[in-house]
Design goal:
heterodimer; A: alpha+beta; Ubiquitin-like (UB roll); Alpha-Beta Plaits; 5-stranded mixed beta sheet; two-stranded antiparallel sheet; globular; B: about 150 residues; Glutaredoxin; 2 domains; 7 helices; elongated
Chain lengths: ~210, ~150
């Protein structure tokens, strides 16, 4: 039970039981598009872009390859008409939130996604959780987290921690597939630095 | 709410990180909201990151990060109450208290919320104040009832 044999895009690959389908595909050099995946972080399955078609015990289903563990005799198709259609849809939905994202635009070109298909709702953040998870898992600082729920969900810096830790780190910045993270950082920084000024002004006037 | 009381509540739950939501609920019901100092204290005592606490406190509607009034008014806007004139009841309450749903007045007397069904449609329009159900409310009766709460 040490090695697992599966087939990805017609090629046989040997994988260890703790691997995911995405990792097995990467071993073969097959590229699966991802947004929320990062090799240093735990699998998260937020963006759903790495969706693939798997066939096991005679039935086909669509799974998110970054969180789907490998199994024996699994047949994986990373590109098919249906997979491409799903990815195109996901990209179009994400582009409604972050139309200017470079990563999204290059994938959109590959999958023929129309960035204007859905009405713009520029929140910039696509909730990939890379910044939040990197800060918690790798840096162990927990300076940034999610707040609220559903359509109101957004990233938020804890000011007290951010003012101490973030200035010298900023390692999460290049991870962000959009510009949301930097915007949030600049905004929270501006709010924090303007507060003492307001207090000073209030003191002078009193 | 002073920090000693927060500590007492944390002690009551044996400072276990798994009791985080229970601790937050206890503070919420006693204090009607969750002050930042309390959250920081919990974070420190339970060894739970503040981001996690903030995520939970903003996820559940039961928690409030801003002060709430002494009396919570919930006006049912469900279908049955709506057709029986819940909107007029809401208008009356808004006018008398000067606040809109989701707000609290400056004296911290009332907090107003609308809800979608309280589960007793036969009593519509229903107004719930501090957990007490008032059924078949007319605007005039609502005004009378509100006077009882100081």
């Amino acid at each position: 039970m040490s090695k697992i044999l599966l087939e990805i895009d017609g090629q046989q690959v040997e994988a260890s039981p703790d691997m995911t389908v995405l990792q097995a595909a990467q071993k073969l050099g097959i590229k699966i598009p991802t947004l929320c995946h990062h090799e240093k972080l735990e699998p998260y399955g937020a963006c759903r872009l790495c969706m693939v078609e798997v066939e096991s015990r005679g039935s086909t289903k669509f799974v998110v390859s970054c969180v789907y563990p490998v199994e024996n005799n699994l047949v994986v198709r990373t590109r098919s008409e249906k997979v491409d259609k799903i990815r195109k849809m996901i990209l179009e939905l994400l582009l409604a939130h972050a139309p200017d994202s470079r990563d999204l635009q290059s994938y959109a070109q590959e999958y023929g996604a129309d960035k204007d298909r859905f009405e713009k709702e520029s929140s910039f953040c696509i909730h990939c959780g890379l910044c939040v998870r990197y800060c918690a898992e790798v840096k162990k600082k927990n300076a940034i987290g999610f707040i609220n729920r559903g359509t109101h969900r957004e990233i938020n810096f804890i000011q007290e921690i951010a003012s101490k830790e973030c200035w010298n780190c900023k390692e999460c910045f290049p991870l962000c597939p959009t510009e949301a993270l930097q915007a949030a950082y600049v905004l929270s920084g501006a709010l924090a630095s303007s507060l003492p000024i307001f207090e000073q002004v209030a003191e002078k006037n009193s | 709410m002073d920090i000693e009381r927060v500590d007492q509540i944390i002690e009551k739950h044996n400072s276990e990180a798994s009791s985080l939501i229970q601790i937050l609920l206890d503070i919420q019901s006693e204090n009607r909201w969750l002050p930042k100092e309390a959250l920081e204290r919990i974070s420190e005592k339970l060894q739970v990151p503040l981001t996690r606490i903030q995520q939970i406190a903003t996820f559940y509607k039961a928690f409030s990060l801003v002060p709430k009034g002494r009396h919570g008014i919930h006006i049912c806007m469900g279908t049955a109450c709506h057709v029986r004139g819940a909107q007029r009841v809401l208008d009356t309450v808004e006018e008398l208290t000067g606040i809109k749903p989701g707000e609290t007045d400056l004296d911290l007397r009332f907090s107003l919320e609308t809800v979608n069904c309280l589960g007793c449609c036969a009593l519509g329009p229903v107004v719930e104040i501090d957990g007490e159900i008032h059924g078949n409310m007319s605007p005039a009766e609502t005004a009378e009832t509100l006077k009882k709460y100081e």
